[in-house]
């Protein structure tokens, strides 16, 4: 028979857990952590993809709106210039007028040019070139200036000889300023008939750059407009054939290699990836291409932030699930641990069993076997115990017992006591025969086969 040590075990499970603890921990972890992990991964994948599409769609919408706004502003300026070209104040009579002598006419021209300039905020200055006996340029800012440079005069007359009545010029300088490159809208005057001059609307550089800056999708990028020859019309640094940065120059060359008029592509420059969007629009016969480039890292910054938030929340939920799983597994394992502690003998096996359920099953079977053996032995010894009880009763050892106590004792020895009464008859034979009979009576009282000496009534 095995030796069992029964003691109060601490509530804390042993340092080395068995197979049941590991299985229960894995089951609880699967129940609590798998849904959290699946939700987190799903949110990360679907959320990142959705946010990326939303950011790209939003940027494209902003770009289209900015391009429409620029187109609308330039269209309005073209319409305004055409209306002024047909104004009677710019009729053919100015061809033969000496503006230096005709003070009234000159003052009217100043006022008209000032009104034209203030009518449209995008315009910086308005000049009127008159190709008379003495070619001059009239402006509200510089007054009347004679065209003294042969190159300037040739440039003005080349514009007048063009078949188009109005067009845009990129890098057309102001009079007597060869290095003053601007963007200008030119319209012949008068609008009908043989032209004697041209109206020149010089755009404000800062405002034009501001319009182009609206095309930009972020700080880490660039926006600019180029003409059909790949020359810069406007950049974020200036207007009228400005010098582009190395990145803008390389990107402009890349745009020229694309046969399509518009599109979007990824462009790598010095280890950085940019998303490039370009499109074209025509301004009175002049073909311009707008280009905007944004760093892919800056565009995906909101996506990364949301993705990190999703991952952070998922990790937090996973940690909480781990903690709850650990606590739940301890609670589940606690009864098993106590049962193992009741059966485990450290003197025979210092280490806890590796399989708690198998260990408990083995001990349970062992206890059942021992219990069955003890019950069989008890059943075999019960007749002798009854005889011994009767002898002690006859000899007066139980005189101090009450009837209830005697019933309990007899019930423990296997007699059925419910609704029954017992009568004990003692016979004694005197004499020599009686002596042998007395011994016989004692034998009858102690023999299992003579239990009928206790007769039920």
Automatic annotation (TrEMBL):
The chain crosses the membrane at residues 25-47, 305-328. Gene3D superfamilies: 6.10.340.10, PAS domain. GO terms for cellular component: plasma membrane. Its main location: membrane. Keywords: Cell membrane, Membrane, Transmembrane, Transmembrane helix. Pfam families: dCache_1 (PF02743). It is a multi-pass membrane protein. This is Cache domain-containing protein. InterPro entries: dCache_1 (IPR033479). It is found in: Cell membrane. The keyword Oxidoreductase does not apply.
């Amino acid at each position: 028979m095995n030796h069992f040590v029964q003691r109060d075990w601490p509530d804390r499970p042993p340092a080395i857990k068995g197979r049941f603890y590991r299985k229960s921990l894995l089951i609880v972890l699967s129940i609590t952590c798998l849904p959290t992990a699946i939700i987190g991964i799903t949110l990360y994948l679907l959320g990142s993809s959705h946010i990326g599409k939303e950011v790209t769609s939003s940027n494209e919408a902003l770009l289209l709106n900015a391009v429409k706004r620029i187109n609308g502003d330039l269209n309005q300026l073209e319409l305004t210039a055409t209306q002024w070209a047909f104004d009677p104040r710019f009729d053919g009579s100015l061809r033969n007028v000496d503006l230096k002598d005709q003070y009234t006419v000159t003052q009217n021209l100043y006022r008209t040019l000032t009104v034209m300039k203030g009518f449209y905020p995008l315009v910086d200055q308005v000049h009127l070139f008159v190709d008379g006996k003495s070619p001059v340029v009239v402006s509200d800012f510089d007054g009347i200036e004679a065209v003294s440079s042969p190159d300037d005069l040739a440039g003005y007359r080349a514009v007048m000889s063009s078949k188009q009545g109005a067009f845009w010029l990129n890098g057309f300088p102001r009079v007597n300023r060869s290095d003053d490159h601007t963007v200008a809208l030119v319209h012949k005057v008068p609008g009908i008939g043989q032209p004697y001059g041209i109206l020149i609307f010089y755009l404000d550089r800062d405002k034009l750059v501001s319009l182009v800056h609206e095309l930009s999708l972020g700080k880490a990028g660039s926006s600019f407009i180029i003409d059909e020859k790949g020359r810069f019309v406007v950049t974020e640094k200036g207007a009228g054939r400005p010098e582009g940065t190395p990145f803008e120059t390389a990107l402009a060359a890349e745009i020229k290699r694309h046969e399509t008029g518009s599109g979007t592509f990824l462009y790598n420059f010095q280890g950085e990836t940019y998303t490039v969007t370009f499109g074209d629009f025509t301004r009175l016969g002049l073909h311009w291409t707008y280009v905007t480039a944004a760093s892919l890292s800056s565009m995906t910054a909101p996506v990364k932030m949301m993705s990190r938030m999703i991952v952070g929340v998922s990790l937090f939920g996973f940690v909480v699930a781990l903690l709850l799983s650990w606590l739940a597994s301890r609670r589940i394992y606690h009864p098993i641990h106590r049962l193992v502690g009741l059966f485990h003998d450290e003197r025979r096996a210092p280490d806890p069993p590796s399989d708690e359920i198998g260990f408990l099953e083995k001990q349970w079977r062992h206890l059942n076997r021992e219990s069955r053996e003890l019950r069989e032995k008890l059943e075999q010894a019960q007749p002798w115990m009854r005889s011994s009880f009767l002898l002690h009763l006859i000899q007066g050892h139980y005189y101090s017992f009450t009837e209830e106590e005697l019933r309990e004792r007899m019930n423990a020895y296997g007699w059925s006591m419910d609704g029954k009464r017992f009568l004990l008859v003692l016979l004694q034979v005197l004499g020599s025969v009686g002596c042998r009979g007395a011994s016989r009576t004692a034998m009858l009282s102690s023999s299992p086969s003579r239990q009928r000496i206790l007769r039920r009534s």
